Amino acid sequence: MIPQSGTAARRAAERYLMNTYKRPPLVFTRGKGCYLWDDRGKKYLDFLGGIAVNALGHAHPRIVRVVRREAARAIHLSNLFHNQYQGPLAEKLVKWSGLDHVFFTNSGSEAIEGALKLSRIYARKKTGADSPPVKTKILALEHSFHGRTFGALAITASAKYRVPYEPLMPGAVFVRFNDVADLEAKFDDSVCAVILEPVQGEGGVFPVSEAFYNRARQLCTDHDAALIADEIQCGLGRTGRYFAYQKFSALPDIAVVAKPLAGGLPLGAILASEKFASAFSPGLHGTTFGGGPMICAAALEFLNTLEKEKLLANVRARGEQLRAGLEKLKSKFDFVKEVRGEGLIAGMELTIEGAAITQEALRRGVIINCTHERTLRFLPPFIVTSKQVNDFLAALERVLAGAARKNKAAAATPVATAAGSAR
Ligand SMILES: Cc1ncc(COP(=O)(O)O)c(C=O)c1O
User: Fold this and answer.
1) Other beta carbons less than 10 A from residue 164's beta carbon
2) In this structure, which of 4, 230, 344, 359 has its CB flanked by the most CB atoms within 10 Å?
3) Segment 224-259, tens digit of pLDDT
4) Could you list the residue range(s) of the whole structural domain that residue 182 is in?
5) Could you say which of 260, 288, 308 is where a domain stops?
6) CB of 202 sitting under 6 A from ligand 1
7) What is the Cα–Cα distance from 172 to 194, expressed in whole angstroms?
8) CB 73 within 8 A of CB 305
9) Which of 20, 145, 199 maximizes ligand 1 atoms within 8 Å of its Cβ, making it the mutation to test the pocket?
10) What Cα–Cα distance (Å) separates residue 423 from each residue in 79, 361, 413?
11) 387 and 273 assigned to the same domain
């Protein structure tokens, strides 16, 4: 079937899709590396990477080759049977993470749900399956984002996502970000898990401090609760380490990954230590699609490519280059409040709204995103080159200069009007 023209496809989307996303009026038709093209042939530099999914950029030849090969063999088999790739993929994730066992899912949210269930079932088995479930409290952090399903929403801090769907999963309590005293005050024996993103993504690119992580680790150990690292956005190389938590000295009990795992195909995973993983037994958890052969083959290829192409070193080097450039921009524009991030997850907090800036960047052929109204977020592919980072910084500078001119004009206008009306 020949795809419809971009305009027809967009009209159909606007007419027939549910109204959950505000999208600009353009249609992307193909990508290569760090670039995308729309249906009119305009080229864009992609510094959003499908919201941290396209770590190898678009149409990476290794992923394309594996997907073509496996699609012609077996796309799906079900989890009632073994396939050739799940085991080897789990083995690699175990080696990289320092944890012991893996469960594959279709998305980040589904992996979060499974991780919450695992921490609950562990606690329940410890206290005795017949006793009332007392250990059910889950501590999450201010600014957190863990997904859109009911359990994940309950531990997502942002009220605008959560409140419209209440009542949610009970037992979620929010701790002030990086506030050890607040964590200690809210921790008690009813806690079955603490969940944190080592570097928060949607919340505005905030890294968790070592002091906070270590205290959470200690309290979880003391109270036999699970420390869960949500690495869906910051994991699998994004920070220049395989897992963002690897900058800390202690492991979490459970880690959750998704976005980049299968080179753009939907795959998530729950990783857990032996102690927690052993709480699952046949029948207690499952999924139809998670971990099919084609998708696991693509994921193995992604992980192998990270190693073979030494992409972690590139993430670190390009990340430093990017942040140094963003800091320079901060010194030029007074509405840039702070630059944050690690590796290739970077945030630039503004004192003004970011929507107009992302729109203007798009008009100039650069794809970025704004989270929490005022934080520009940059998530380029791990293959990004030094030249592409420089091109991006130059384009962003032009966009920020335009915003500065507009701000200045807007600041001047009310004075002129007031002066005018006084006359
Ligand atoms: C840290 C984090 N956790 C969970 C999720 C939810 O993942 P998904 O959208 O695949 O369900 C996201 C998505 O942005 C995320 O960034």
Assistant:
1) 8
2) 230
3) 999 999 999 999 999 999 999 999 999 999 999 999
4) 74-308
5) 308
6) yes
7) 10
8) no
9) 145
10) 78, 40, 16
11) no
Q: Work out the number of other CB atoms within 10 angstroms of the CB of residue 413.
A: 10
Beta bridge partners of 256: 230, 270
Rounded-to-integer distance, Cα 195 and Cα 213, Å = 10
Task: Please list the helix, strand and coil fractions of the chain in percent, rounded to the nearest 5, in that order.
Answer: 45, 20, 40
Same domain, 195 and 300: yes
Q: Can you read off the two tokens belonging to residue 127?
A: 């206290």
Residue 1 lies in a domain: no
- pLDDT tens digits, one per residue of 272-296: 999 999 999 999 999 999 999 999 9
- Whether 333 and 358 map to the same domain: the answer is yes
* Ligand 1 pocket check for 237: Cβ under 6 Å: no
**Higher model confidence: residue 372 or residue 343?**
343
- Count structural domains, the chain: 2
Note whether 336 and 249 are same-domain residues: no
151 within ligand 1 shell (Cβ under 6 A): no
CATH code (residue 348): 3.90.1150.10
